[in-house]
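Dear Dr. H.,

I hope your travels went smoothly. While you were away I took the liberty of generating a structure for the chain from your last submission, since the lab meeting agenda had it listed for discussion. I wanted you to have the full record in hand beforehand rather than looking at slides cold. The sequence, exactly as received, is reproduced here:
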Amino acid sequence: MSLKKTRDLTPADYIPCCTTPLYDAIGATITALHTQITGNPAKSASVTIITDGYENASREFDFNTISRLIAQYKQEGWLFAYIGADHDVEKVAINLHIDHSMRFSKTEDGTRDMFRRERQARKEWSDKMAQLMKDRDNLSHEELMQLKRHINTEYFDE
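The corresponding predicted structure, in token form, is as follows:
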């Protein structure tokens, strides 16, 4: 889906209910996205996971499946970022093979700052990927994947 087609979330969209089926949310999202972009090296994927808790309610995906999918998709040039509050964010990210993580405070200011930082990182990443796609005709598939993976190492750098 194009970023231009997304809409802002409203309070009616976000209704926490004390459970976090985190692996199911990640798995359903990334497998659907993978289906959409597979076979088109001009497409890039950036997946940002934002949560306020640990996994505790998934039924379809488990830790091993999610960490394997993330590792596989990173090799295909995908970017993953993990943003969380109220848990060991860095440990969860590392265990899931996610290189970029950010902790935020569940306050109005903390949430605003987190989204500002994430939005800036995503914009810079998108600009770099757009430039790479302009230059891709002179690159082999492996060179393109290598450059995508390199660009992905710089997320959240300020």
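Two observations you may find useful: The longest helix spans residues 108-134. The chain is about 45% helix and 10% strand.

With kind regards,
E. W.
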